[in-house]
Amino acid sequence: MKKTTNMISLFTKIALMFTILLLVSCYTEPSLQRYFVDSSENKVFQNISLSPQSFIKNAESLSEENRAQLENITKLNVLMLKNDSKNDVYETELNKLNKILKQEQYKPLLNAGEPSKSMEVLYVGEGKQIKEIIFFGNDKSTGFVVARVLGNDLSPENIYKIMLLGNQLDMSELSKIIGDFTQG
């Protein structure tokens, strides 16, 4: 009888440990990627996914070295939400996004602005192995824009080289998309 009680007790402990392990493994903090996916299904957001080739019109006129730098970028995801003062969607979504971007995995590179208008640049990765760069701009009078730049070999040196290309790039298509958002 004692042997049966011990086996039941052991089985109960194993079942309890398994249940706790299952519950803990199912809980994950919300990620920016998940936020993008969830928001893309919401009609109040504008969501755009682009390859650099689709919005940089003059890539062929760049030097081979500069084109190689751009090819490190594989995708650009942009999510925009207008601030419609008639409802609380903007504040709710801004709070969700700020909570996500405060997680340890999102490391700040640059912060600028004031409470009503701000801009942040963050990254995900370690050392020279940057997985993604995040640009987040917020203007309480218009709304917010968050962009994820994904790629290969996004080392600080390569990011800097890409930034130096800024004046040489024809990004009028991307500017038009963002301009359409802020204007209407």
Q: Could you characterize what this model shows?
A:
The protein starts with a helix and ends with a helix. The mean pLDDT is 79. Helix content is 43%, strand content 29%. It is α+β, with helices and mostly antiparallel strands. A 6-stranded antiparallel β-sheet has the order 1-2-6-5-4-3. The protein has one domain (32-183). The protein is extended and about 85 Å long. It has helices spanning 2-26, 32-40, 52-55, 64-71, 89-101, 156-164, 172-183, and strands spanning 45-50, 73-82, 107-113, 117-126, 129-139, 143-151. Keywords: Coiled coil. Pfam families: DUF4252 (PF14060).
Outline the secondary-structure elements.
Blueprint: H1 2-26, H2 32-40, E1 45-50, H3 52-55, H4 64-71, E2 73-82, H5 89-101, E3 107-113, E4 117-126, E5 129-139, E6 143-151, H6 156-164, H7 172-183
